[in-house]
Amino acid sequence: MHLVKWFRKNMSKLMAIFVIIIMLAFIMPSVLKQLARPKFKSTDKPMWFFNKDKSISRNDIAQATRELSVLKMLYIDDFLLSQPDLRFKLLGQLLFPQAARGSLLSDDLKRTCVRMQFRIDPERIDDFFAQASGRAELFWILLKAETENVSYTMTVETAGKFLDMLLTKMTDGRVNAAAAVQNVGRSNQMTDDMVVQTFADLLSVLRYIKTVTGIEDVTEAQMEFIAAKTQETVSAEFVEFANEIFINEIKEPGEEKILAQFEKYKNNLPGIITEDNPCGFGYKQEPKAAIEYMIIKLEDMKKLVDKPTEDETEDFYQQNLDAYTEQYPIDPNNPDSDIAERQRSYAEVADNIKETLMLRKVSAKAMSILNTAVQQADEGFSSLNFDTADVSQFRQAAKDYAQVAENIAKQNNIKIYTGKTNLVTQKELQKNNSIGFLVIQAQSSILTRLPRYVFAAEQFGKEAVKLGPFEPAKPKMYVSIGPVSDNMRTVIGIVRVIEAENSSVPQDINLSYKKNLPSISENDKKDEDAFSLKDNVIQDCKKFAAFELARQKANDFAKMAKDIGWDKAVDKYNSLCPAKGLLNTQKTFETKSWNQKRRLSQVDIETVKLSMSQSPIAEEFIKKNITNAALVNKFYSLLEPQQTKIENVPVVVEFEPQLACYVVKSFSRQPETVQNYEQTRQRIAFREDYIITQSIAVEYLMPENITKRAGLRIADESNDSEQQELTEPNGV
To answer: Looking at the DSSP assignment, which residues form a beta bridge with residue 645?
Structure first.
């Protein structure tokens, strides 16, 4: 039979077979996936055990999901997160995690901790948000069980009354509590009593959390110490004998002395002050990274965009009228007069608007150009598996930055600065004005500095910078970072890490290298581009010798001051030791003073750390604050217990962290008075209690601590993959 005739005769049968095949093609993947998934014999089968003999099943998880849904529909998530108490906010994030809201909350908590001086490490806040991105149902079950275990429960009647007040307040009376409970119950297949009971469970958990974290008692001795620490001030008069003053008098050290200095401190990182190394000498090499960069000056981009027109400027003004209002006193001669508001005219603000629009146009154009550069430079990565590919594969697939920049520069008629640094430390990157001020924007409103971000690459292992959950993902070698820009919006660019090296002890003293840092900014110093370990060791030897000479001169000065008087000794010493190499200083030695200076606490230092987190000079500034605090404490050690001022003056104080000596004319402390303490005693007690309870909250509600307290463990190792799926992060 002819083939065509056979097809015609059997067409209906063939069509039926084709339909069946198509249906199988659609359903087989899902069928195979279901068959491949581990099965539970029953939804009541335990998935986890906790508290010795208690268990959690899939049914328990489903019930917890319904209960959290009920609370969310009753606006409890908004209620918790709107409270000033950290315990409410943290519980809200734990039970109702959201990515965008979590980022804002994390930044807000860090600022609150600094402002209120809570004793919470910002990194622990990062840990909390990273861990709180898992399944909220588990935390809800465990916290409820912990509360029920101590019979810390609230009645349904009390919870109902509170819910009525809460919904009335949060909705300005628009929502009736009884109707809301009925609607929520119907949506979740729960009775009214079950809905209110869920809210009662939440109140019980909150009440228990407040009790557990609020058990600290503030003692009288503790309050006295706080009052003394915060209210006490010190005053001093002294002359500083810094090593820099005498370093030009020091001869070059011999080779033997240089090698001895190197061998003694080659295993120490520089700047780390310890009892064995009070001067902070160190020659161990810190982690280093090499980067490749492509940077554009925004000033050069102005020729590529049109200036804002009058229509564009006026349209922007009309669309942002609220931004151009100002308040002023009705009676300018009376500071207590009523405040009025007026709309600034278009003519007043037109120039500022044009500058804003021009900056936006320039930034948009620069972003467009650099995005094109990223696409071209990274196009070879499309065939790579980012999870399994090694560094060599990324290196081979990466396009040449210089070639990409040259092509794009020609197309747009602009200058693009490109280059590669050698292996340099984070500090060396930070000091460079072209790179050190660049920042990266992610979910967090606290920007991430590029030099810090570069050293978060996984190649640094345990020495890698730890990034928070709302900062950018870790950089990958040879993958472009950016666009990145500085806070002043003067430059914008992309960079990539091309080499990473962990800290190491130098093999010998002859280590040297060129940094090859970019010199785009006019403030970059080309003479700082070279590093010589031997030069550093020699300089440290000379500094220490100058310190010894400073000690001798300080003791001579102290003796002279006793013999002829302080002021005459200062004048005499200035005539004997004229200024050498000191800029903008009329006299080498001057009497300096502290007037009611407060001693810095660790909390003050942490405040400075967070407030300067975006600054490339943060480390040096913080180090200076720590050193100054240590100097005040050194002066303070001159006093005997209960003594308010030193008697036998002048006295010489040696301060090795700065390699300087101080001849002290006077030093006194002004302690907190009994009268002031009695007036502030109650306020101190309330504040200290509040700080303690808020500070404990983070650790108490830390997810890892919740599971540890409960002793949470997997019930069946064979179903580990299923349980992992239920507890994996939700991408917060």
So the answer is: 668
pLDDT for 610 equals 61
Binned at pLDDT 50, 70 and 90, residue 730 comes out as: very low
Query: What gap in Å lies between CA 379 and CA 397, rounded to an integer?
Result: 8
Average confidence (pLDDT) over 649-671:
92
Q: 472 phi and psi, to 5 degrees?
A: -60, 155
More confident residue, 659 or 151: 659
d(CA 253, CA 534): 12
Within 8 A by CB and 6+ apart from 623, the residues are 271
Helix and strand numbers, DSSP H then E, in the chain: 28, 18
The C-alpha angle with vertex 532 and arms to 531 and 535, in degrees rounded to 5, equals: 130
Cα-Cα-Cα-Cα dihedral sign, residues 17, 22, 27, 32: positive
What six digits make up the tokens of 149? 């275990």
Beta bridge partners of 452: none
**What's the Cα-to-Cα distance from 702 to each of 99, 123, 574, 730, rounded to whole Å?**
18, 12, 60, 17
Amino acid at 571: D
CA torsion sign, 299 to 304 to 310 to 313?
negative
Least Cα distance to 603 among 108, 114, 107, 126 occurs for 114
Residue-by-residue DSSP string for 208-273: HHHHHHT-PPPPHHHHHHHHHHHH-EEEEEEEEEEHHHHGGGSPPPPHHHHHHHHHHHTTSPTT--
Rounded Cα gap, residues 523 and 505, in angstroms:
32
Which residue is it, tokens 């910002």?
A: 122
343 burial class (0-12, 13-18, 19+ CB within 10 angstroms)? exposed
Region 286-303: what's the mean pLDDT?
A: 94
Q: Please say whether the beta carbons of 483 and 498 come within 8 A.
A: no
pLDDT (tens digit, 9 = 90+) per residue, 216-266?
A: 666 666 666 666 666 778 899 999 999 999 998 899 999 999 999 999 999
Categorise residue 505: left if φ over 0, alpha if ψ from -120 to 50, beta otherwise: beta
Spatial distance between the Cα atoms of 538 and 258, rounded to a whole number of angstroms: 6
pLDDT digits (tens, 9 = 90+) for 413-447: 999 999 999 999 999 998 888 888 899 988 887 88
Token pair for residue 73?
């529909």
HSE-CB at 101 with a 13 A cutoff on CA atoms is 16
